[in-house]
């Protein structure tokens, strides 16, 4: 396995321990995305979806260059999911604020 990443027999468990709790934020973000889609406003939620891909993606090249391990990749993935959920909450809160007339 030259150059390949091998997680070993407990790699899946390590992934679930580090990234698993962040999937709650993915579910929250997706629910809010579908709510925004139902209202016909998808531009800002689409940008929030792109942050989920952008935030860990820009650090992935550093994994090989800096010698970071697979645990760092898992942490980056969890941060991306967390960021997605939080950005979606901020976007929808803003949408509801303007929809309610700023009360």
CA-CA gap between termini: 60 Å
Q: Give the overall form.
A: elongated
Q: Give the proportion of residues in helices.
A: over 70%
- Most strands sheet: none
| Structure annotation, total helices | 5
Beta-strand portion reads under 5%
Low-confidence stretches: none
In short:
The protein is mainly alpha-helical. It is 73% helix and 0% strand.
Descriptive overview:
The protein starts with 10 loop residues before the first helix and ends with a helix. The protein has helices at residues 11-19, 23-38, 43-57, 61-65, 70-99. The model has no long low-confidence stretch (mean pLDDT 79). 18% of the residues are buried. The chain contains 5 helices and no strands. It has 103 residues and is mainly alpha-helical. Helix 1 packs parallel to helix 5, helix 2 (23-38) runs parallel beside helix 5 (70-99) and helix 3 (43-57) packs antiparallel against helix 5. The longest helix has 30 residues, at 70-99.
